[in-house]
Amino acid sequence: MSFKFLENSPARPVVKYWLALGVVLVFFQIFIGGVTRLTGSGLSITEWKIVTGTLPPLNQVDWKSEFLKYQATPQYQKINQGMSLSDFKFIYFWEYFHRLWARMMGFVFIIPFFYFLWKGWLSKKLIGRLGWVIGFSVVAASFGIIMVMSGLRDRPWVNAYKLSIHLTLGFSVFAFLLWALFHEFFPKVEILKKQDFRKLARWTFGIGLVQFIFGGLMSGMKAGLFFPTWPDMNGHLFAEVLFDKAQWNLINLEHYDTNAFAPALIQFLHRNTAYFLAVLVSYFSFKLWKGNTPQTRRLAILIFSAISLQVFLGVFTLINCKGSIPVLWGILHQAGGVVLLAILLYSNFLTRKVN
Predict the structure, then answer these.
(1) What are phi and psi of 233, to 5 degrees?
(2) Facing residues of 123 across strands?
(3) Helices (H), strands (E): how many in the chain?
(4) Is this structure's pTM higher than 0.85?
(5) Closest CA to 268 of 242, 243, 304
(6) Phi, psi of 6 (to 5 degrees)
(7) Span 86-98, pLDDT tens digits
(8) Helix extents (H) in the chain
(9) 15-35, pLDDT tens digit by residue?
(10) Cβ–Cβ < 8 Å for 223, 267
(11) Which of 343, 59, 42, 58 is nearest to 178 (CA)?
(12) Pairwise CA distance, residues 338 & 178, whole Å
């Protein structure tokens, strides 16, 4: 089999729609992953069977077998002791759905990819961009297994640091695929060549990505439960535990679930990075608005609306962390973060250097 490549011709419509479908599927995979995490479902399936794991339990005997495996986990023994089989089926569904969606994405992506490659419908540049997508997809899937295994030993939850890495890898797949889509859908879009725009676009996306990582750590550590107040932190401008020098050690960062230090530190960083990002994005929006063209003004409205909504979702999620993290608000906040970063990535696309 020999492969042909496009040189400078635009991609066929079917390739563009395939890329768009991929972006939507990855977005919902991140969304489903958030629901899986927030409902405490991620450890319900204790084994990773790539082929046979495609089918769920089909009878009562199989369900009881899966439930017995889950009952041997720290999560069941320390948190869900006495859970009914029907409750187990609920959390099993979300983890199964998350894994099934990942398998479906693999088929939707890989089979058309080789077909388009064989037909010569992919340019060399597009193949290069999709190479990054494939690479990060493999790493994200592998790290998903590592993350789940971290919650089947001593802790009743997956490791927060590994969760944040897995989430960031998932977003990386989304971002690289979205970048490829931008190039195919908008090859002739007018580039904003002003140097200030380019620098601000890079800074906002970079800080936004750091904030996304802190968000993953917030979720993994359930840090919102420790300080569910705003704008203060349980009545103080800064959490008091952060002023205790004895708390600043690697042990507290590693064993974040045994004291309030690490959750306080991560929430402090997440809050203040959010303030900085909001100011930076607002300034970027202001500069774009002053650009006084329809294109710059549309982009200004888009990114300012996105950051405003995300700040609202973040605050509302936090103040509703009374005893448990609100699933609906938590997943909307995570989805809002992905949308915001997608818009900031688009601003980088519009301000990129063109050779």
Answers:
(1) -120, 90
(2) 6
(3) 11, 0
(4) yes
(5) 242
(6) -75, 155
(7) 999 999 999 999 9
(8) 13-38, 60-71, 74-78, 85-119, 124-149, 160-185, 195-221, 250-254, 261-290, 294-319, 327-350
(9) 999 999 999 999 999 999 999
(10) yes
(11) 343
(12) 11
